[in-house]
């Protein structure tokens, strides 16, 4: 049995949606962030005490992108990612890692700016990361506009779920003079998110986590 350690509206959301999309039996453990993340029991699962962690028959996994890729590769018939030997795999992997090593960390900088810059320097890191996020979203929009199968607005995909989750957070973040990202400024990414949020898998998770009926395009 798969066991996901989660928290509402955190990075476990994309993993839950993939588990639902794949129809895999799983248990969801909702963490108490204050109590659990630093506990020895949870640190034994995740060395940094972060969310998500997924217990699997092959051992515990962490890092959102690694978990999503493992799930997709284990269930190739679902087509959530290009097969390992397909021509599209190279392009897909490039943009998956682009997202997990650039966009995701810069988004975390917005929400945990004191960690990145030290207390008192939060605004500088928020301003720098926000500017970088704009450049990253421009690049991702260009990739999505080419309508690759692995980031399609017509079918569920690993990268679509991962990006839609990150776009949800960007759509709700504002600080000082920095306005929220308007998702409609990125029409190809918006189309991916708008399609995915209609999927029963996404709707079930959104309802359970209290994310509203349009969790990606109208974050509440
Ligand atoms: N690179 C990690 C980042 C995980 C991460 O930072 N998760 C956040 C939730 S979205 C978290 O655990 N926050 C709690 C904390 O940092 O105290 C991944 O992709 O899984």
Description:
The chain has 220 residues and is of the alpha+beta class. It has helices at 12-22, 33-36, 40-43, 64-74, 89-111, 113-117, 122-145, 158-170, 187-196, 200-209; strands spanning 2-6, 26-30, 53-56, 59-62. The chain contains 10 helices and 4 strands. Strand 3 and strand 4 form a beta hairpin. A 4-stranded mixed beta sheet has the order 2-1-3-4, with helices on one face. The structure holds glutathione. Residues 10-11, 33, 37, 50-51, 63-64, 104, 108 line the site of glutathione.
Summarize the structure.
The protein is an alpha+beta fold and 220 residues long. It contains ten helices and four strands.
Fold topology:
Layout: E1 2-6, H1 12-22, E2 26-30, H2 33-36, H3 40-43, E3 53-56, E4 59-62, H4 64-74, H5 89-111, H6 113-117, H7 122-145, H8 158-170, H9 187-196, H10 200-209
Parallel strand pairs: 1-2
Antiparallel strand pairs: 1-3, 3-4
Helix pairs in contact: 1-4, 1-8, 1-10, 5-7, 5-8, 7-9, 8-9
The structure holds glutathione.
